[in-house]
Description:
This protein is an alpha+beta fold. The protein has helices spanning 12-23, 36-41, 50-58, 63-68, 88-92, 101-115, 164-167, 235-245, 248-253, 297-316, 321-348, 355-371, 373-384, and strands spanning 5-8, 28-31, 47-49, 70-72, 74-79, 82-87, 96-98, 119-120, 124-129, 137-142, 145-150, 153-156, 174-189, 199-202, 208-214, 217-224, 259-273, 276-277, 280-282, 288-289. The protein starts with a strand and ends with a helix. The model has no long low-confidence stretch (mean pLDDT 97). The protein binds flavin-adenine dinucleotide and 3,4-dihydroxybenzoic acid. Residues 8-14, 31-34, 39, 44-45, 101, 123, 126, 157-159, 161-163, 265, 284-285, 292, 295-298, 301 line the site of flavin-adenine dinucleotide (FAD).
Amino acid sequence: MRHQxxxxxxxxxxxxxxxxxxxxxxxxxxxxxxxxxxxLARIRAGVLEQGLCDLLRQAGIGARLDAEGHxxxxxxxxxxxxxxxxxxxxxxxxxxxVYGQTEVTRDLYAELDRIGAPVIHEAENVTLHxxxxxxxxxxxAHGGRGQRVDCDHIVGCDGFHGVSRRTIPxxxxxxxxxxxxxxxxxxxxxxxxxxxxxxxxxxxxxxALCSMRNPHLSRHYxxxxxxxxxxxxxxxxxxxxxxxxxxxxxxxTLQTGPSIEKSVAPLRSFISEPMRWGRLFLAGDAAHxxxxxxxxxxxxxxxxxxxxxxxxxxxHQGDDSLLDSYSATALARVWxxxxxxxxxxxxxxxxxxxxxxxxxxxxxxxxxxxxSRAAQTxxxxxxxxxxx
Length: 388
Ligand code: FAD
Ligand code: DHB
């Protein structure tokens, strides 16, 4: 088969790119390794920047987001004796929207189905060929039969463990990694959120985050040792530990209930440069991973897609300048969001091996944040998303 663009990976990056390209009359196919139900069952991000919301509207799938998403004008940071509200709207004029990644993915699938854009699930052994030539192609197995896609460009949206990045020769790739000595244990529960806005809590026992999907569905996270598995934590143990890490007023009103999902994710910062090799382009987690503390992973995937869709559309109008600058443009934003995610992670987690000095630095920074509009503005500007 022949398509103008072959997209590897049907997560949010790959699906959104396909939709934006189809809207511009460019024919793209998505190859996804997993069944659709599996992709839709993965509970991941929940906070969308305004830039991502605008992109979803531009792609024609803003209706459910606008009806069911919850606009948040601020967040609470509770640490080192302060309980501090960061007022996004007052400080930056912008807001974020709470709307689950699963819902974004569901909306994307529905629209791609409606317009007949192909998404091939359970594509096995996806292999990229000739990405550094003028005639790239991709092979894969589907239903036991070998298949081949000839295309003009390949886009790797296949996440951190995908094949696309590793197709770029090691001599070309520059990888930068920082691994944190803990993970996040997350649970989803059909309980009311403890507070109308997200609460990021820094505590000597470890970080905690109270998030939500809607007024009846809460998402909570605890910093845990990397060796902990979800089955090591009963629901009761989770709620007890969460209560210990929250300010007393919130701990008292915390509504608990059975978890309907429980998982542990390791924390990592990772960036692979460049994001282009010949006719192969990388977008989203395929090229970079951030620790979840600043809620940037999904939003960065979306900004890559915004840049790349513009560049591919310009290419089809005879202008290659945006394709040529894609890697540099995307990486400039990726590094800044990575810096923010890293600094939020350093500010709010317990690093038991680093002694008392870091804890005092964290306390000093929180104290400064509490008293400085400039410091709050810097945090808010990054949290709501740097300009595209
Ligand atoms: P992905 O969503 O990873 O999609 C990649 C797709 O490629 C997958 O569907 C995968 O099945 C497919 N694929 C992989 N290999 C192949 C192959 N060889 N062939 C074909 N297809 C392949 N971000 C936040 O902002 N907040 C959070 O709370 C948060 N929680 C997270 C929890 C977990 C466990 C993880 C892993 C990530 C989390 N993230 C979070 C990050 C956020 O979800 C990602 O940044 C976002 O999903 C990136 O989208 P993507 O499309 O680039 O990659
Ligand atoms: C969620 C996850 C995050 O990493 C974050 O910073 C905020 C919210 C969430 O899953 O709701």
